[in-house]
Amino acid sequence: MGLTNSSTGFFVAGERSEKCGDYIVALAGNPNVGKSTVFNALTGLKQHTGNWPGKTVGNAVGKYLYKGKEYSLVDVPGTYSLLANSAEEEIARDFLCFGDCDCRIITVDATCLERNLNLVLQILEFTDRAVVLLNLMDEAKKKGIHIDIDELSLQLGVPVIPAAARSGKGLDKLKDAVRCVCEGKKCYVPCMLYGKETEETVRALSDIVAETATGLLSPRWIALKLLERNETLNARICEYTKTDFSADERIKRLVSQTNGEEFLEEEVGTVVARAEQIAALCLHSPPNADRRDRRADRILTSPLTGIPVMLALFALILWITVVGANYPSELLFRGFAFLGEKFRGLLQAISAPPAVVGCVTDGIYLTLTWVVSVMLPPMAIFFPMFTLLEDVGYLPRIAFNLDGLFRRAGAHGKQSLTMCMGFGCNACGITGCRIIDSPRERAIALLTNNLVPCNGRFPTLIALISMFLVGSAVGGAKSFLCAAVLLGIIVLSVLSTLGASKFLSSKPSSFTLELPPYRVPKIGSVIVRSVLDRTLFVLGRAVVVAVPAGLLIWLLANIHVSDTTLLASLTAVLDPLGKALGLDGAIILGLVLGFPANEIVLPIILMCYMNSGALVQYESLDALRSLLISNGWTMCTVLCLLALSQRPPAQRPVRFPAPHPTGSASPPAFLFRFPCATSCLTVYKETKSVKMTAAAFALPTVMGIIACILIKTLFVIFG
Q1: By the 8 A CB rule, do 546 and 583 touch?
Q2: pLDDT at position 50, please?
C-alpha cells in the first residue's frame, strides 16, 4: 500500500482501514537518520537503507507483533520540515497530520541532534502521541557526544528512547514506549510560545476553531496553520475537519491582521531558537567531534581537490567495469552457446519443423542470451561499486561538488547523482530521479538522462575508436589516444546534458543538501541490494522486450518475397534516408529493429550486409573493420553513427560470441541516440505519462539527427 498526494494510505476521509491492525504507527524523521533501518528491524521487510539524502522517496508499510497486539508501521518519506516544499514532503506531512495515527515515531540522528529537533518540535505542536527515537547512539559515542536522555525527555514532554538500529539496540524499549502511547498514556508537551501579539491572535483564533473542530486536531495548531496561509495545507485541514474556516468572518478578520510572511519567519525562528535551547541543555559534545569527517571533506569537497578526486574515482570505477566485464561475459557466452546447441539438438530430436528450430534458437534464444551476456556483467560490477559509494556517504559530496555547474545550467544539483547513475545504466538513472524534489527539475533530469553513455557502451566506444579514430598508432601511444578520445566523448555527453537542461529549464529551485557522516558500509548488504534492486531490475525489463525482438528479426531475415528477404527490402527502402544522414539503410534498420533489444544492432547490420538469415561470426576487429569498409563505411559514417546510435550491440559480432580480451566490441554507439526500450519503459513506469515518455525518446533522437546532418554537411563542404 502506498501513499499518494490524494491519499495517505490508511486514512481516507478520516476512516481507518480494516487491514491496518490494532494500531497505526507512523515512522517519521529527516532523511538519512536510519528510518529504513528501523523499519527493517521492526518489520523484517528489506527496504533501501542508503547513506544519502532522499533515499526513501516513497513509503513502505509493514507489521509487527508486540504483546499480543498488531502494529502497522508506515515509513513515510524523509522530511526536514512540515513546511512541505515537494510532493514527497507533502505526503509525509499529510500522513503525520491527518493519517489517524495512534503514535508517531520521530527518528532523530544523535550526532546531529539540534538540526533534527526542528522537525520534532513541529510534530509535537499538533500531537502528544509521539515517541522520539534517538538513533545512531553508537556513532555519537564514538565521537564523544553525550546526550542527557532524561533532560531531553523532560524538555520535549514525550518518551525519548536511545538506540542503535543497525545492531538492534534499544528497539525493545521503543516497542514498549509505542505500546504505552497507543494504549492511551498521556504526555505533557510544553507549548512553544511566540511573540506577545502573535500569541494573542493565536488564542483568539484557537477559541473560534475549537467551536467546530473539537477533538480532531489541536485548535492551537490549526490557528497557527491558518496564519501561515498555506493554501494546500489549509485545504487538507478543512477536508479533514469537514469545516470551511475561510467562510468564518471572524477568522478572516484575524488572519488579515497578520502579515503571512512575517509570521512564517517568526514561526521558523521560534522553532530554531527552541531547538538551540534544548540542545544547549541536553547535548554535551567535544569541539572536535566531527574532526574525521571534516578532514575528509577538506579534500573531497575542496574546489581544488574535490573535482579531480571525483573524476579519478569515477574513472577507476569505469575502468574496472569495462575490463572486469570481459571475463564473465565470455563465460556466459560460452555457457549459453553450449546450452543453445543442446537445445537445438533436442528440438531436432523431437522432429520439430526447421522453421520452428530456427525461430526459437536463432531468433528468440540467441537474442535473449545476447542481451543477458552483454548487460549482466558490467551492471553486476558497476552497481555494487556505486552502491558502496552511496553507503560510505560519498554520493552527496558529488552533488555538492557539481551543484554550481548544474545550477548555472538551470538544473537541480541532485541531477548530478542521477547522471552519474546513468553511466551505469540509463534506466537506473531515470529511477534515481525520484530524489529530486522539484517536479519540473525532476522532469528535466528524466528527459536528459539518456544523453550520457551507460557503462555497457564503453567497450563499444573503445572498439570504434581503436578501429577508426586513432590511426596507425600502436602500443602505449594507441592506448593513450584511445583514452583521450574516450574522455572527450564523455565530456561532450556531460556538456550535452547541461546544454539540454539549460534549454528546458528556467530558474532553478532551492533545495536542502545534507552531507551525511562517513560510515563503514555493510559489504554483504551492498552486494545483495545492488544486484537485486538495480542489476536484476534493469535486466528483467530488458529481457521482456528482447524476446519479441528476436522473433521479429528472424522472421524478417527468413521470409522471402520474390527471392528477396523482407530484411533486404526494408534496407533498400531506408537507404535514401540513411544516406541523407551520413549512414545507410542497413544501419537505420539496425537502429530501428534494435530498439527493443539494442544489443543486437550490429548483428542486424551484418545480416543486412551479408544477406544472412542468422547472426554472423567475426573473430577479430580487423575482419570486422574490413567488412564495414567494404560496405561503404567512411569516417563520416563512423562520426554520424557516434552521434546517432543506441546502446551497444554484443561485445563481439559472433553467433555465440566471446568478448575480445581488450574490451573490443562492436559498433558505435552514441552521444545522442535512440533511447533503448528499457529506458523508455522506465520513464513511463516513473511518470505514467505517454507524453513524457515520447519526449524522453524524441529529445536525444532529434539532437542526434541534427548532429548527423551537420556532420554530413561539413564532410560535403570540406571533402
Answers
A1: no
A2: 45
